[in-house]
Specification:
This protein is an alpha/beta fold. It is built from eleven helices and 15 strands. The strands form four sheets. It has a six-stranded mixed β-sheet with strand order 3-8-7-6-4-5. The chain has a five-stranded mixed β-sheet with strand order 12-11-13-14-15, sandwiched between helices. Strands 1-2 form a two-stranded antiparallel ribbon. The longest helix has 21 residues.
Length: 391
């Protein structure tokens, strides 16, 4: 198949839509179920590149949750702790740690569950039965992977009344070196972005006084930078323990990128607070409603809501001071930026979210002020020398 007719394009009024290979060759993918749309394919192909690259360079199964052509979350296949099982609402009847791919998926989805509602999923490895069972529980548009076991395929085909979109990608496909696209009738071409992120020697030469970056932090910084390669710019990504904690995408201001990523990271960090681990939800409350209820509990406006809408017992309310202390003591968060920090205020905000390791391209006329701000908070920072804009 070298062409696939789509129902419509980005919007329903854009009726003429298809995907095809310019050279007339077969598409490097197979649609196993459903009818993916234009935006689905944008999410699928961008998210596949992300998980493929994570798997290649970090040697872990990887998963991503995409919405509107940017990752809501991405993660590596690291076993879940008992606390993580609680905050990710893992069904105890399924032994998740028997599948590293399932661990990666649940971690990716657990980054920012509100943003992941109705997402597109990418998996670096063949989807197994355990992973499919977790996907089945969530509201999602579709999934792309290099393959599916028979058991997994049967489970996924039962989603959305049999209309769940399932794409099998050829894992050996390599795109042309030159990318092309048309905008307003004008054709653009450029060489594909290489992999400048993975220059490990850069992580051994921090520009700050603090030169110590443990191996796990290097891994998390690489996770953040590869994630940013496929995030709409400007973008910033916070990570820890092989999982994105918050992604700030598509902001015009670098500071707003940092604020958005760190605000999301704060919510993710607070989900580990003891008060959040034993909430008594109403039995008829769905998973999305539970996620909304948790976010309400963690906002400044919590007193504007009636807890009886969601819970059978009144939950403990964490004060602003307690929230700040919990986040401050979380420690060792990594942060990547797709372009340089123009001002040290970015570091001031990152510090409030327990960021201790930073990777960014450098090259600002105020690099010295940014370095000084890192030194003020004992943050270790590397400059990669490579911008990672994605548009």
């Amino acid at each position: 198949m070298n062409e696939f007719k789509l129902k419509y394009g980005t919007n329903p009024d854009q009726s003429e839509a298809k995907i095809f290979m310019r050279d007339g060759s077969d598409l490097p993918l197979e649609i196993l179920n459903g009818r993916p749309g234009y935006i689905n394919f944008l999410d699928a192909l961008n998210s596949w590149q992300l998980v493929r690259e994570l798997n290649k360079f970090l040697n872990f199964p990887a998963a991503a949750s995409f919405k509107h052509v940017s990752p809501a979350g991405a993660a590596l296949g690291i076993e879940l702790t008992e606390t993580e099982k609680k905050i990710f609402n893992v069904n105890p009847e399924i032994e998740i740690n028997k599948s590293k791919l399932a661990c990666a998926y649940v971690r990716a989805r657990g980054t920012d569950r509100l943003s992941s509602f109705g997402d597109w999923i990418a998996l670096s490895d063949i989807c197994d039965e355990i992973t499919a069972k977790f996907i089945k529980f969530e509201v999602s548009d579709g999934v792309i992977a290099p393959g599916f076991t028979d058991e997994a395929l049967n489970i996924l085909k039962s989603k959305r009344k049999g209309n769940y979109s399932i794409i099998k990608i050829n894992p050996n496909y390599e795109p042309p070196e030159i990318e092309t696209r048309d905008i307003f009738g004008v054709s653009f071409s450029q060489s594909r972005s290489k992999n400048p992120v993975i220059e490990l020697e850069k992580f051994n030469n921090p520009v700050t006084k603090n030169k110590n970056i443990p191996d796990e932090a290097k891994r998390d910084l690489i996770l953040s930078l590869i994630t940013l390669k496929y995030t709409q710019s400007n973008s910033v990504c916070c990570t820890k323990n092989g999982q994105t904690l918050g992604v700030g995408a598509g902001q015009q201001s670098r500071l707003h990128c940092v604020k958005l990523a760190c605000d999301k990271a704060d919510l993710r960090i607070l989900r580990e607070h003891p008060a959040m681990l034993n909430l008594k939800f109403k039995s008829d409350l769905g998973r999305p409603e539970r996620d909304n209820a948790i976010n309400i509990l963690l906002t400044e406006n919590v007193n504007n809501y009636d807890w009886r809408e969601f819970f059978t017992e009144q939950p403990e309310i964490i004060s602003a001071e307690e929230r700040a202390d919990w986040i401050k003591n979380y420690n060792n968060v990594s942060l990547g930026s797709d372009a340089f920090f123009p001002f040290p205020d970015n570091i001031e905000r990152a510090n409030k979210s327990s960021v201790k390791f930073i990777a960014q391209p450098g090259g600002s006329i105020r690099d010295d002020l940014v370095i000084n701000a890192c030194d003020k908070y004992n943050i270790s920072m590397v400059m990669t020398g490579h911008r990672l804009f994605h548009h």
